[in-house]
Amino acid sequence: MTNSNSDAPKLGEFELIARLFAPLAAHIPGALGLTDDAGLIVPSPGHDLVVTVDALVEGVHFLAADPPGDIARKSLRVNLSDLAAKGARPRAYLLALSLAPWVNDAWLAAFADGFAQDQARYGIGLLGGDTTATPGPLTLSITALGEVESGRMIRRAGAQAGDRVFVSGTVGDSGAGLAILKGEGTALEETTRAALVARYRLPEPRLALGAALAGLATAALDVSDGLIADLGHLAKASGVRIVVDAPLIPLSPGTRALWGEGREAVIRAAIAGDDYEIAFTAPASRESAIREAARASGVPVHAIGRAETGAGVVLRDENGQDIPLSRTGFTHF
Amino acid sequence: MTNSNSDAPKLGEFELIARLFAPLAAHIPGALGLTDDAGLIVPSPGHDLVVTVDALVEGVHFLAADPPGDIARKSLRVNLSDLAAKGARPRAYLLALSLAPWVNDAWLAAFADGFAQDQARYGIGLLGGDTTATPGPLTLSITALGEVESGRMIRRAGAQAGDRVFVSGTVGDSGAGLAILKGEGTALEETTRAALVARYRLPEPRLALGAALAGLATAALDVSDGLIADLGHLAKASGVRIVVDAPLIPLSPGTRALWGEGREAVIRAAIAGDDYEIAFTAPASRESAIREAARASGVPVHAIGRAETGAGVVLRDENGQDIPLSRTGFTHF
To answer: Which of B48, B89, B98, B103 to mutate to test the interface with A (most CBs of A within 10 A)?
Structure first.
């Protein structure tokens, strides 16, 4: 954790950060106590490193009033979700932090505590970072490093015509949680509302499942833009067309309670973002191995469609008719 | 390069970024065309990875009016300088970019071109990134990845009592350049002024020298906070006291022209920041090998002091008397 002398209006704050963040690096030998110019990471023998970065901005990705621990945990988990979708096991992360003037000591302590909680949960640690001041919104970027057996990273490109298309967990819960925060579903039970909002606030990266899919899935990504949009990315990278059977898209009871049992509920779920489930493809011959991976990792997996020759994504209703997505206001791709 | 659907007020801009940045990743196979969730890096056999991150904020580290290519190049070079001081050879970098509302297409094109120039100069490429919008100042963070033979990363900790202390290049030029921008040295020759300002605007990471020092230096860091402050970091990490002979600190003719030949000039140079030279320690027995490394890399190296038992940094004058740094307004450590 370094900071240059030109950007330290409150030296005490940077000392506090050093004190708060050093424990996050204590069990990562390569972090060198966050007192060096760089961190050192030694990949396990026979492994490649997988690296991803995300930037998060106050007022865009989170609000200043959000619980600081949740901001930390969501920022970290969004990156871990990328690693999960690549079949990688997370090792460590780096944090670049631009502190807004409103940040105080209590906020920083709770922010660091959020990282501490999720580090313990996911068995990772802080490898390095940089802290600076900003006159603008709080901004952070997290670089996550994971590893995967050499040559086994699951890419977006790799789906073959004939593959089945799968998705983990349930789709749309995060979007439903956001809808509730925006005023929908006031008649729902409070436990249902809280569960959906929790999925919006704090995703659960599917790390165990992702690691088990390395060697099984032909292509994968995490669902962040929305199931249909992300399958569009996968289809484009792989050079295939993806057909999704709308009735097979797994919706949670909570999302069904909010949006109903009809086609519109499925469409809303399929275009809502921030699920952080894994969407992937694999040959039908591997379906039993995939079901075993799902069982072992405790995350259900549903077959929702297939890859064909062609391009783009098609959503089909129970009668095999295309559902025109443009009419739903979905013009993302 | 990914961006989430919640933060794209100008989709065209993100498409432009994808078009501008894809060529920066074209020769890095693990970048996967910036179309995947993560990048892949395969360390050379027998090598460790060295990772560093820096955040840079408009109005703090650069100005909106600065040439966009220079912002890109300085941001990158500051990170490469960290790798150089660790003895690492740079491989790739990731860019997290939070775009301010004032950014336009021409700015983005020049910004990307700055990266392209320095990628070619240093033989690296873009491994991944993330772009988002910010209502505040332009903010970027760069994560640089390098590699070093296993176990050979040069740390801040490692200096031994009895080691000599060295610094590359000349000290204070960047501070002198900043002083000129603030109005000093109006009587200097324009070429001298321009050369000093150039050192402030665009550091030159000492990569060849740094790589040659792996296995020779016992400890090293890059001079960013200022020579004395950084040697203080090194002394603290190594558990030694460092004595610097002020007359041995190498000042360029330009800095001497600005600040004169006296003791005050040396003190100003020694506490000015942003030199991005390498300060390091090594046993006297390795001095000839170090001089050979300096010759081979084309960067002069000067012996400026020694490590002793104790703590802290002492600056000594030509008579061996301590120069009291507190009187100079230097209260950094």
So the answer is: B98
Alpha helices in chain B (DSSP H): 11-25, 68-85, 105-122, 173-181, 190-201, 207-213, 227-238, 253-259, 263-271, 287-297
Question: What tens digit of pLDDT does each residue of B203-235 get?
Answer: 999 999 999 999 999 999 999 999 999 999 999
Statement: residue A58 has pLDDT above 60? yes
| B11 in contact with chain A, both atoms CB, cutoff 8 A | no
State the Cα–Cα distance between residues B271 and B225, nearest whole angstrom.
8
Q: What is the average per-residue pLDDT within B298-311?
A: 98
How many Å from the N-terminal Cα to the C-terminal Cα in chain B? 40
Query: How many other β-carbons are positioned within 10 Å of the β-carbon of residue B58?
Result: 24
Tell me if B237 and A36 make a contact (CB, 8 A cut-off): yes
For B58, name the nearest residue in chain A, comparing CA atoms only.
Answer: A134
Residues B74-101 have pLDDT tens digits of 999 999 999 999 999 999 999 999 999 9
Of B35, B49, B53, the CB nearest to A130: B53
pLDDT tens-place string over residues A219-238: 999 999 999 999 999 999 99
Strand A39-41's sheet: what is its strand order?
A: A39-41, B47-57, B139-149, B89-99, B125-133
Strand partners, A193: none
Q: Cβ(A60)–Cβ(A163) under 8 Å? A: no
Q: What is the ipTM of this complex?
A: 0.91
